[in-house]
Amino acid sequence: MFLESTITRNRELIETAFSFHTEGKIEPNTYLLDLDNILKNARAIKEKADKLGIDLFFMTKQIGRNPYVAKKLMELGYKGAVVVDFEEAQVMMKNNIPICNVGHLVQIPSRLVKKIVSYGVDFITVYSIEKLREVNAAAKELNIKQKIMIRVLNSNHVIYPGQAGGFYKDDIKKIVEELKSLDHVELVGLTTFPCFLYDEKEKKVKATRNVGSLKEIQEEFKNNNINISELNMPSVTCIQTLDLINELGGTQGEPGHALTGTTPDVNGVEIPSMVYVSEISHNFQGQAYCFGGGYYRRGHLEDALVGKTMDSSKKVKAIAPTPESIDYHIAISEECQVGDTVIMVFRTQIFVTRSKVAIVEGLSQGKPIISSIYNSLGELIKEY
Question: How far is it, in rounded angstroms, from Cα 11 to Cα 6?
């Protein structure tokens, strides 16, 4: 679904991808990011959020923690990044990118708490009493007061494997009692994940039952004389879901896939701005195989374009590797010319791949250039 949307709405990016690979400017297993349209998307999302009074913290893991794009987002007026884990936090710190929230999916390791608190973070999310105490100790040593959010859940919570953690309603009195002895943290917000998911049957984004946890526990804190002013509602933050966040009382969103136009709703306002480039490696038993390294197993890969140019390319079925396999190659449903370019578009998380990331600028003026190439973890490989 993502490929067809990109052909229709950003054909120039696909044409550029074919040219850059054919000319040897990029290698297989490279993502091309169309910076012009990423910023156009980011500007439109921010304008809508500003009208609704919703704060936006941009997410960079999907684009490989890319600091160059992050700096461009800051120039548009974004407050800073939400970092999914402590390693992403370190990339942002290394590149002087403000951090607005850290800890809501992956907690800060004990020996990094002071370093991150001292860097200056708007909100630190915790989901254990032990981590709350560690943040308080670091803030006390630094003689500051750190704003805290806690991650909450209920008994019927939607939660992904590997992301378990949080406080239940029954834990509130324990937290309130603990806060009485912690003078260097201030509890101001709640978060949970995911707050929104795309409904395949109804073809629209809907709030999950997790949002009810936020509202219920916010009320419970109010009953214990603690005012929760911030409700962070992550997942599928885009122009179309900002109204939902607002209606449900949310104060914060976290655009990630929306920046590259790869939210599940491919008919959304945001323009598709990212493609994956590979090359036919070999043929075997009636199928072709292209070089892999960048496939994300929840990517919903369906088709690929194969050829030397956009106009001469052929649309063929792409066959994703099975979840238990390493994506050394991605299969194509029929034999192809070895060395031909392969263009795919799918939902990805570049930070868990082995890919390169090429930043393309000037596409909107018809003069595309590669300004820099990074690895999948935000480290600069080459600057032009």
Answer: 6
Using one digit for the tens of pLDDT, what is the confidence trace for 81-96? 999 999 999 999 999 9
CA distance 262 to 304: 16
State yes or no: pLDDT of 192 exceeds 90: yes
CA 227/CA 179 separation, integer angstroms: 13
Question: 273-289, pLDDT tens digit by residue?
Answer: 999 999 999 999 999 99
| Residues 6+ positions from 121 with CB-CB distance below 8 Å | 99, 100, 101, 102, 146
Q: Which of 136, 100, 46 has the alpha carbon at shortest distance from 232?
A: 100
Q: What pTM did the predictor assign? A: 0.95
79 with 98: CB under 8 angstroms? Answer: yes
